[in-house]
Amino acid sequence: MKFKKVDLPFENWELEPIIDSHTVELHHEKHHARYEKSFNSSIEGTPIMDYSSLDQVLLDIDKFDGELNDQIRRNGGGIWNHNFYWTQFIIGDRELNDEEQKILDLIVKQFGSKEAFIDEFISASLKLFGSGWIWLVNDGGELKIMTTPNQENPLMYGIRDVLIGIDLWEHAYYLKYLNSRKKYLVNVLKLTIVR
Ligand code: MN
Questions:
Q1: What is the Å distance from ligand 1's center to 112 Cα?
Q2: How far is the CA of 86 from the centre of ligand 1 (A)?
Q3: Tens of pLDDT along 90-117?
Q4: Could you tell me the pTM of the whole model?
């Protein structure tokens, strides 16, 4: 099958003022679209076409080597990571649903407070050199903050349960926050369950 980027579950302007509409448009219509196009053209005629789940492709990355391994790591991850990114945001001032509240309770329980979690999350993101992602994952009942380089993600390390995922590539924030990854992080977290 072909693997698709999600349609945005909001209008381009709805993340304003935290993420400006121009950044959303470029990020979804140019960057995310490029990962989708590159991945689908690179897997034609390969066993990856037989998969019906992108999650499973990423979990199985070690079964593939050479060019296909690179394609999964870069462009397959690029599709998945952005699909996750766009669909995690909480728009407006709606209440958290039960599932989101449960995750927030776990965060507070494990990190001591929401603020302590946010500090740790931001400080880990500032330690990532170059482009990549920062994640909050549930690894067998234990919440962990992890970073991955480029378009790698937790599934490639056998972790399926991803709770928060923030794009740390400059294209995610440069138009509004210039080189301040920290300002972007402080603000973008206000669109997630720890807002
Ligand atoms: Mn991106």
A1: 30
A2: 10
A3: 998 899 999 999 999 999 999 999 999 9
A4: 0.97
